[in-house]
Amino acid sequence: MRGRQDQLSWGKSLSVIDRPQLALLATLLIAAALLGGSSRYDVMQNALMQPIAWVVAGFALVFAGAVRTWPKELRWPLAMLLTLLVLAAAQLVPLSESLWSGLPGREPLADIAAAINSDAARPMSMVPSRTLNALAALGIPLAALLVMAGMGQRGVYPLLASIVALALLSALLGILQITTGYSDAGYFYRITSEGAPVGIFANRNHTAVFGSLALLVIAFLVTRQERRAFPGADVLLWSAYGAIFLTILVNGSRAGLLTTGIAMAATALLVIGSRDAAQLAKPGRKGGARSVIVRYLPAAVIIVFAAIIVAIFLLADRLAAFQRIVAQNPLEDLRFRVVPQLIEMIETYFPLGTGLGAFERTYRIHEASDLLGPNYLNMAHNDWLQWLIETGLPGLILLLAFLIWLGFHLLRLRRVGRGHLVLGIAGFAIFAVASYFDYPLRTPLFQVAGVWFFCALALLGNAAARGTTRDQAIAAG
After folding, report:
1. Angle at Cα 321 formed by Cα 317 and Cα 323, nearest 5°?
2. What is the rounded average pLDDT of the residues 459-466?
3. Spatial distance between the Cα atoms of 267 and 419, rounded to a whole number of angstroms
C-alpha cells in the first residue's frame, strides 16, 4: 500500500484512492462550495458547514489510519492545527476575577465588573462566544488535512484539480450573475458584494484572489508532462484559465488584480520553464534564433492576450477595479487609516491576545472618533495584524513555525524543478499579499484550499528527499 501511496501520476491517482476517501473528498468539496464562501461568524451556512466538517474529519481520521503511517510532511501541519485548537480552547477556560482582570487590556471589562459589583469568572477571551465559534470552525481545515492525509501523495493532483474546479464553478456562477443583471437569486449569502460577480463567495476580494490562485494552479498543471495522459487536457485547462481571468477583470477587486498579476507572471515563467525542460530533454538540439522564439513565444502570447483583454475592458469602461483605483485614493481607504489602531491593539493585548474571533467587538474600544461612520470593520482587513491581535505571542510562534516549515519545503522544491519552486513561491505570495489587504483565510472555502495547496507543496517536494535525479526533474518539467 505504501508504494501505491507514493504515486503522483495523474492517471493512477484516482484509481488507487479508496471509495470512502473519495466520498469524504466529495462531501467536503460540495459543502465548501455551497456553504463555505463567507467569513462572517453569523451566516446561516455555518450551522451546517461546521458540523459537516467535524463529521468528515472524524471519518477521515478513521480511514487515514495511524498518524505514523501518514506522509511525514503532513505531521507538522497536523501538530500546528492541534496546537491552534488547544490555544482556542485555552482562551475559553474560565478564570477567577483576580486572574482575568489582571490580564493585559482587560481594564475596561474590569471597570464594568467593578461598577456592577461582580466577581464572576471569565475566560481569557474578550468575546467568548466569538472564540467558541472560531474553535468550532477549526474543524474545517482539520477535515481538509485529514482527507489529504488519507490520500497521501496520490491525492496531490486530484486536490490541486479540486481547487481549479471550485474556481471554475465560481467563475461560471459569476458569469450567470452578470447575465441575470445581478439578481438576488444568484447570490448565496444575505450579506454579500451586491452588483459584483462573486460566484460562490460572499466577498468580491475573496472571489478574485481565489481565482488568481486557480490561475497559478492551472498554469502548473498545464505545463506538466503527465497531462498528456488525458486527451484534451490543454484545451480544458486553458479554457478554464480564460473564464476565470475574465471574471476577475469585471470583479472590481484591487487585491484580486494584484494577485492576478502574480499569477500571470508565474504563468509566463512556468511556460518558459516547460519549454526549457523540453529542450534539455532532447540532447543534440542546436540553439539559435528559432529556439529562442519557440522558448518565449507561448509566454509572449499569454501576456499580449491578457494586455489586449485588459485594454478592451478599459476602453469599454468595464474594468471596475481600475475605476475604483482612479476614483478613490487607496491611502484614504479605511483599511489603511486603521493601521495605527491595529498596532495599538497588538501592544495593548500582548502577549496573550484578545482571543480568536474577538477582533470586531474589541476594536470598538480602540476606534478613533474620526473613523466613526456608517461602515464598520468586522475584520481588520489585514490578517497578519489581526492574527497577532487575537493570538498574541502563541500565535506569533505558530506563524513563525509555519513559515519555517514552508521555507524548508520550498528549498526542497527547488531541487525537484523550477516549475515546482515557481508554484510554491507564487502561491505563498498570493496568500501573503491578499492577507495584507484582506482576510481570505477567514473563509472556510479558502481554508480548505489553503491546506490542500500548502500540503501539496510539501508532498511534491518529497521527490527531492527520495533522491530525484536531474533528468527525472527535467522530464517532470
Report:
1. 45
2. 71
3. 10
